[in-house]
Amino acid sequence: SSRHVCVSEVLHSMESNQPLLTNNQTASERIIGSIMEWIKWPLSRDVREHQSREERILQAWAKADNDEFVAKRRQTEEGGVLHNKYMEHMGIINRFIPESMCDQKAKECCAEILAFNEHPQFVADLVVGPALKYAFYALIVKVTFLIVYPFLTMIFSSCVSDSFAQVPGWLYIPYAPFLVIGLVLEFHCLWYTLPAQICLVKQPRMLFFRLSRKQFFGLVIPLSVAAHTDTLTLSLWLGKMWKTIRCPHAADHIEEFWRLYWKASIWGQHNVPSFFHCTSFVYVLAILRVVIGVCWSIPLTRPWKRTVIEGNKAREDHCAHAFMDDSFFMIQDRRKGKRFGGFKTYRTALNGKTHHCESLMTLAECTNMFSVTYNDWLYRLKTINTGKMKSGQIATEMKRQLLSM
Predict the structure, then answer these.
(1) Model pTM?
(2) How confident is the model at residue 220 (pLDDT cuts 50, 70, 90)?
(3) Angle (CA) 217 220 224, round 5°
(4) Within a domain: 56
């Protein structure tokens, strides 16, 4: 019970925008606060990098660009013609998301885009750049686990007479750090994605029921953990089956049972693939899902135009790949114009015209980020309802959904 009190107090400090660590806290509270600060450290680094770029832009851009930005900013400030609309959309976001949760700049950009009603169908593409970076990290973690763990399970499992191979209990322990890393990276992705989803969705749903904030997080947190453990289950099962096939006595029994199982089917007893081939096919499908995520989300290597800021001057430059653009994984402020605040459009192996949100959702589905993808179907429906989505964009989204399943 005391542990629950500590957690609730730390969460309350997050919601009320209070420091996580103070001198009046108990040891347990300070430990939990330190963990939360460690988790949020990359997010704080992103804020510093974004602020640094903002300062360099202010020094480098032309007077005409600065005047246009100031004029747009004044429209959403108090007394401006769009102030009420801006505050309305900020209110929608803040009613669901606590003040100190999710990136503040992402919230402001989402509210500004909807207040100006400029490209509302691309609102997520402008703010989820940092989330895309963390989704790539999550993909690397999952690929590493899928490549190593099934074979590790096969090596350390032991044969059992007339039964499947036995997996030692300690093999579950190495998955713990992978699970923690996956959940932390999912939290970082949600930090930037949720404001864009809520500004259009307003309130998440489950079937026909609207979910409150507590209901939403109470639903997605355990389901996200369960989704991540699916990778462990698959890896253990594959390693266990491959070890069973290599066991001298069990291998004959399992192949015989496999043929009897298919005897009554249209396959008959002839041309039945071996059990090893079937399990290997499952493994190939798991790897193929990751490959699709890579091919849909990573820009193809080609000359990429970027804006380089040197001192008080900005110039256009070409680099070998989009990842070398320091603004590629940053939040884009549409008020700064296409050059300094436009969303990124790039070609991938499976899509000739991809934006950040499409890439992020593909990676989130490949890496089992349930909390990130939960609102995506409703978000897509709302973007279509803006009336600014083209039929080709809708068809591309349907293609992406089918490939990433």
Answers:
(1) 0.84
(2) very high
(3) 135
(4) no
